Amino acid sequence: MNEGIRRIVSPLLTLLYLLILWEGAVRFFAVPAYVLPAPSLVLQTLFADAGLLFGSLVVTLGITFEAFVLAALGGIALAIVFNLWRPAERSLYPFAVVLQVTPIVAIAPLLLIYLPQNLAVLACAWIVAFFPVLANTTLGLNSVDHNLIALFDLYKASRLQVLLNLKLPAALPQILAGLRIAGGLSLIGAVVAEIAAGSAGAGSGLAYRIAESGYRLNIPRMFAALLLLSLAGIAIFFLLSALSYLMLRRWHESALKRER
Amino acid sequence: MIAPASAVVSLRGVGKTFEGGTVALQGFDLAVRDGEFVSLLGPSGCGKSTALRIIAGLSKASAGTVEWADEKDAAGRLGFVFQEPTLMPWANVAENVRLPLRLAHADATKTGAAVAQALDRVGLADFSPAYPRELSGGMKMRVSIARALVTEPRLLLMDEPFAALDEINRFRLNNDLLALWRVLKRTVIFVTHSVFESVYLSQRIVVMTPRPGRVFAELVIDAPYPRDERFRTSAEYAGYCRRVSEALERAMGAAP
After folding, report:
1. Residue A197's pLDDT band (boundaries 50, 70, 90)?
2. Domain of residue B43, residue span
3. Mean pLDDT taken over chain A
4. Distance, in angstroms, between B110 CA and closest chain A CA?
5. Which residues, at least 6 apart from B10, have a Cβ–Cβ distance to it below 8 Å?
6. Do residue B91 and residue A256 have CB atoms under 8 angstroms apart?
7. pLDDT reading at A201 higher than 60
8. Is B15 at the interface with chain A, CB within 8 A?
9. How many Å apart are CA A235 and CA A232, to the nearest integer?
10. Which B-chain residues 59-78 have CB contacts (< 8 A) with chain A?
11. Which of the listed residues B105, B135, B152 is the one where a domain comes to its end?
12. CA gap B222, B179 in Å, rounded
């Protein structure tokens, strides 16, 4: 079998076996749905509650997308500022690290006090997603081949020319790696903030649906919502991987097939 | 000796001490005539690359002076070929060669001919859409030379450009470089640690002492051009190589 096909088929087969085992175990031991719903029931619930759940999915994806775009723009812009002006890096980078290492679950309740709910959720998602873009872009911009920098010096290139024609293209692989991490983290940040907000009152995202279904012991709906979140995460990962591949396939080792 | 009047660039008493205290160059004197092919020969760490970078303006001398016959040469009419090809992997061959022109804000419509001509000179006319990763080591180096030539520099500085190539490729590039030099009549300063390469290419060889680097001896290679494979296997060539080798050996033993 072809290597590419095997990479897709193998995990799918594993998934199928697990689902059959799960379905069989639930039926065989007659496990009640409020303890563990069978996969078939989760699927049924997904269709039965489709309107509600997809509405929530759109809300969560909206926040995820906004957070991702802001994290990408903010992270890349700040990394450029750091690269052009070292004092900024020295004075600001530690705070970016502090923001990153402080668990977002702990920050969310505070943000919910100070900001309107939508903004607080967006801020949480942004905080989590922003750092990998900043860290990766900073690394990429600082890792440019010294001889290429010397070459640009030799031809009296301006700082803007060095940035646009050398540093940003050279950092592209790292920037894209940062974005790929940020995509998944935006979703996580949005979910964490929604859960924190959900317990505080109104909310309509998917994470809120999970929390709400939990209170109501509607376990099949919890699973259905979880399934949607997973699928959303997978979709984000594949989209960003595809973007990375398309942008690097002409030149970067990571996107090249190794000849043997 | 060289009459200073005809020198393109002269270094007088140039010294370079790095931040860590390493003295790379001390009292280094060199005058390069217009159109000359001169090699700086010495073991690694003798400061020959440092001298080249100082001439290129990529490094500042800690002592001494660098004088140009025409100041415009110092400010950009230079081509530099690094030890590695130093190509931008994200840009194709044509874009890599076009880079110096783009950085000088040259009219994009007019650069096409210059790029094509530079690539033609190094025998890569058909490779302009290729990406660096698709090329062999020798071809990458040719692209690097084309990029250095595209601005029509008066002075071409080469820092051990063929050191990483296999012998077959190195001989071919040596021949092609000499052919280019004869056609274009540029001044070339060539840094190498190979006695054989320096004798084959140069009109004059400057042998350097290690740590600190300074000029130990200058040898004129008075063999006529064009030089080809027959010269490479001649007794004359072997004789020059022996003399240069001996000078190099004495330079290595010369106490600083």
Report:
1. confident
2. 4-77+155-253
3. 90
4. 18
5. B4, B30, B31, B32, B66, B67
6. no
7. no
8. no
9. 5
10. 75-76, 78
11. B152
12. 17
Given an 8 Å threshold on Cβ–Cβ distance, is B104 in contact with A170?
A: no
Report the chain B residue with the minimal C-alpha distance to residue A251: B90
**CA A259 to CA B20: how far, in whole Å?**
44
Average pLDDT over every residue of B124-139: 92
Overall size of chain B counted in residues: 256
ipTM confidence: 0.89
Tell me if chain B has a CB within 8 Å of the CB of A145: yes
Residues of chain A found within 8 Å of residue B91, distances taken between Cβ atoms: 169
Instruction: Pick the residue of A251, A253, A256, A259 with the most B CBs within 10 A to test the interface with B by mutation.
Output: A251
Does A241 lie at the interface with B, CB-CB under 8 angstroms? Answer: no
For the cut 50, the answer to whether the pLDDT of residue B2 exceeds it is no
pTM for the whole structure: 0.85
B72 and B167 inside one domain: yes
Residues B176 and B241 in one domain: yes
What's the CATH number for A37-255? Answer: 1.10.3720.10
Residues B45 and B63 in one domain: yes
Which residue, B28, B7, B16, is CA-closest to B215? B28
Confidence of residue A233 (pLDDT cuts 50, 70, 90): very high
Cβ of B133 within 8 Å of Cβ of A251? The answer is yes
Contact A147 B86 (CB under 8 A): yes
Stretch (H or E) spanning B187: strand B187-192
pLDDT tens per residue, range A12-23: 999 999 999 999
- Residues 104-163 of chain B with CB under 8 A from chain A are 104, 131-133, 151
Judging contacts by C-beta atoms under 8 Å, the chain A residues touching residue B80 are: 150-151, 154
Arithmetic mean of pLDDT, B101-111: 85
pLDDT confidence of residue A68: 96
- Mean pLDDT confidence for B53-74: 85
Banded model confidence at residue B211, pLDDT cuts 50, 70, 90:
confident
Contact flag B76-A155 (C-beta cutoff 8 Å): yes
Q: Considering B152, B176, B201, which residue would you say is the last residue of a domain?
A: B152
**Sheet hosting strand B7-17, strand order edge to edge:** B23-33, B7-17, B63-68
State how far the Cα of A203 lies from the Cα of A197, in Å rounded to an integer.
7
Look at residue A76 in the predicted model and tell me its pLDDT.
96
